[in-house]
Amino acid sequence: MKNEKNKELGLKLLKDMYLSRKFEEKVQHYFSLGMIHGTTHLSIGEEGAAAGTCEGLEPQDLMYATHRGHSQAICKGIDINLMMAEIFGKVTGVCKGKGGSMHIADKDKGVLGANGIVGAALPLACGSAFAAKRRKEDVVTVAFFGDGASNEGAFHESMNLASVWGLPVLFVCTNNTYGMSTHISKVMKDTDIAKRAIPYGMPAETVDGNDAFAVRECIKKARAYVVANGPMLIVENTYRISGHSKSDGNLYRTKQEINEWKAKNPIDKMRSDLLDAGTCTLNELDAVDQETTELIDKAVQFALDSPYPELDDVYNDVYAL
């Protein structure tokens, strides 16, 4: 891990994870002040899964994020200024302030959207993958979903459809062990989600979602398989340190459990790995920390300085009433 290529990659992954973490910390802060409305679902602790996955893709690849998709969108390349403005409901937002936290989209970056329906990304991904296959394009569609969504009918219908039609879909499960307040062990007799690919005749891999390097390598190999052969399931085991949503009091799990996972969080792991391997110096890592703090502060200021949409804009960009 001592060559310059791994250094560049490590710093890129670390930067994406820092941006994701600090973006959500700011969102959490301004929600608490009543300056951001609606709701939001944070992915603090899951940054390694998002960064590693997006870094393993090609620029032309597409993705559907979950309702907990800030980090997924950031790591796919959406401008953080536009994302922050969107969260604040400002007209300069990536969706002109009309999408908010759960509906981030930017087709120019390959982010086809996110929504609040659990598992809804899966059938949508089959659609974009079908289009890519018909056009004979070198494009893979990633469908992010959580462990809870693997119990939805849409999951099984989409896995079956993608398998039968040989669609270039990469099903990526961010397994954070909780569906809202319910632990995975309470709703699955066998908690090995990768086994759910077996009936659909597709391969599956399980990876440590807190190891961004490992996730990236897994995704790169999976992408090559999907382009040539059809769908694949990837399970990225991680942990949601933040609550389910802004109103979550975390009464269903202990502080000890949360603190144990905090100690294994992907940002600290990446820093330790880069230092231990002699790939980066402490000053280089701290510089990324400082740079991302400044970028997020600028994004917040951009959002605060931006105007709200005019009332006359309410029906613009609306395709159905």
From TrEMBL:
Source organism superkingdom: Bacteria
GO BP: any one term: pyruvate decarboxylation to acetyl-CoA
Family annotation (Pfam families): E1_dh (PF00676)
Xref: InterPro entries: DH_E1 (IPR001017), PDH_E1_Alpha_Subunit (IPR050642), THDP-binding (IPR029061)
EC number: 1.1.1.-
Record GO terms (molecular function): pyruvate dehydrogenase (acetyl-transferring) activity
Cofactor: thiamine diphosphate
Residue intervals of the Dehydrogenase E1 component domain: 16-310
Keywords, comma-separated and alphabetical: Oxidoreductase, Thiamine pyrophosphate
Protein name from the UniProt record: TPP-dependent acetoin dehydrogenase E1 component alpha subunit AcoA2
Native source species: Acetobacterium woodii (strain ATCC 29683 / DSM 1030 / JCM 2381 / KCTC 1655 / WB1)
